[in-house]
Design goal:
single chain; 15 helices; mainly alpha; 2 domains; MetI-like fold
Length: about 300
Amino acid sequence: MSTVERVATNPAGAVRRRAGRRRRWGSLGWHLAALALLAVILYPVAWVVSASFTPSASIIGDLELLPGDPTTDNYRRAAEGMAGISVWRFFWNSTVLAVLAVVGTVASSALAGYAFARLRFRGRSTMFVLMISTLLLPFHVLLVPQYAVFQNLGLVDTYAPLLLGKFLAAEAFFVFLMVQFMRNIPNELDESARIDGAGQWGTFWHIVLPLSRPAMITTAIFTFIWTWNDFLGPLIYLSTPDKYPLPLALQLYIDQTTLSDYGALMAMSMLALLPVIGFFLFFQRFLVEGVSTSGLKG
């Protein structure tokens, strides 16, 4: 039986086969486009990895992704530190800033989110709208007045300007995330807790907070990554090299007046990525659940 006869005798099957072929070709096209986009996104990372094993004198120029003469001297010089300061000092400074920022942001955002989501008080809607409106303000708009305030308080060249807002629920995005998540927790749980004699603090600590763990972990992930990678904040407020976190310490390897050690710079960049990658991989299974703020089911 010829192809024309088969199509004539079974037209529905022919339509399904043509639709299946179109879907397969469409899926192949989407996968190829995704792989091409992934290659473009990962190229800078591959470049940095290659540069970290390339002699410093060969980095500026036509750097190959697979270095012909790989070396680990860049990591050795990076481990020796810069300007007489150990590299572990920079890691310690970044760790202190990131951990305190996570603790402050999670704690203050959870408290503020509970107040907006579960409590009833006068002006709540107005205050919530004003808080959300701060998301529209660029960081640079507030930079000058904030610097003036901290300078008058004598807090410049300390970690206070970088951490104080974290403990005062100044991160409106994370407060909003907590509010949206806590609103999906059934109010019947609060009523049951009050019947059992729990007050507002007991309800928050024993009922709402444990159920908000996905949102809290999401807040912790983003806060850790953003604080660890923050360059502008430390650049503005810190002037003593001993207090530099890793992103700011990287500039010590670049000297416009003398020689610049690009190899150690690339090696330090790779070392600075490892804690962020590890932190994300450890908590990634909570990320989607927290961002979706799906609440409880059943």
